[in-house]
Specification:
Elements: H1 2-15, H2 17-46, H3 55-65, H4 76-79, H5 82-86, H6 88-98, H7 103-137, H8 143-170, H9 173-198, H10 202-213, H11 215-242
Helix pairs in contact: 1-7, 2-3, 2-7, 3-9, 7-8, 7-11, 8-10, 8-11
Transmembrane segments: 20-41, 61-81, 101-126, 146-163, 175-194, 214-236
Keywords: Membrane, Transmembrane, Transmembrane helix
């Protein structure tokens, strides 16, 4: 099953190489625009400087954009509203279902592709970010805590990336866009409420959490993200058995 799924992933990587490269470049760009936010964050929170920076944008990037690294968000289906009507993800799965490929292989293929995409886009994003913030942030935050921070947020991205994989291939184009807008609104409301109630940004709060719990926080994040990934693999597998591909 793994062998067949990985073979399918290789074929898709070759077919979507252009979208993959464009998404990777965009992930690097997002890393670049996040650098000044971390610079101001470090100077305000750890350096005690009286400066104002947008906690909202900082939180929105991590809460709302990071999970999208599990998808080729610079590919056609995410860049056109025709997806609502044409449902390209459903057509792709319908094509696979017409071939002698077991459902378990198709579902595992989607999960492996999501994991690979998330891992590579995260490496690009955090590499750019780490190089850019090394001087201001590492005066106050240890390299170990920064690594834990990355792992914690990777686990979070994995959690929502697993859900998004189900939405892509277990529902349709309309639901894909609907869920995207609904979650964007939820993120915005959550960030505003969190900052208003606790008077701290979610990114800053995650650093405090790491300072208190260290590797335990990273372990829990990866455990929750990994467990969610396995759960949605089984949910997607069952859904593909009953989905209408017409």
């Amino acid at each position: 099953m793994w062998k067949n799924s990985i073979w399918l992933v290789k074929k898709e990587l070759k077919f979507h190489s252009g979208s993959f490269l464009l998404t990777m470049i965009t992930a690097a760009f997002i890393g670049l625009i996040t650098i000044p936010l971390f610079d101001m964050f470090a100077r305000q929170v750890y350096g005690g400087e009286d400066i104002i920076y947008s906690k909202f944008i900082h939180d929105l990037i991590f809460l709302g954009i990071l999970p999208s690294f599990s998808t080729l968000f610079m590919s056609g289906p995410y860049l056109t509203f025709r997806t609502i009507k044409e449902d390209p993800f459903g057509k792709r799965i319908g094509f696979y279902r017409a071939l002698p490929i077991p459902i378990s292989v198709i579902a595992l293929n989607r999960v492996v592709f999501m994991l690979l995409t998330l891992l590579l886009m995260s490496i690009v994003f955090y590499s750019v970010l780490t190089i850019g913030i090394a001087k201001p942030l590492f005066q106050y935050v240890s390299v170990e805590n920064w690594l834990i921070f990355i792992i914690v947020w990777f686990g979070y991205s994995l959690l929502f990336g697993s859900f998004n994989t189900f939405v892509e291939f277990g529902t349709n184009g309309k639901m894909l866009y609907l869920f995207s807008f609904v979650f964007l609104l939820i993120y915005i409301v959550l960030i505003i409420l969190f900052q208003k109630i606790f008077n701290v940004g979610i990114v800053e709060w995650s650093f405090r959490l790491i300072e208190d719990y260290g590797w335990f926080a990273a372990s829990i994040s990866v455990l929750v993200g990994g467990s969610t990934c396995m759960i949605f693999y089984h949910i997607l597998k069952k859904r593909l058995l009953t989905r209408d591909y017409v």
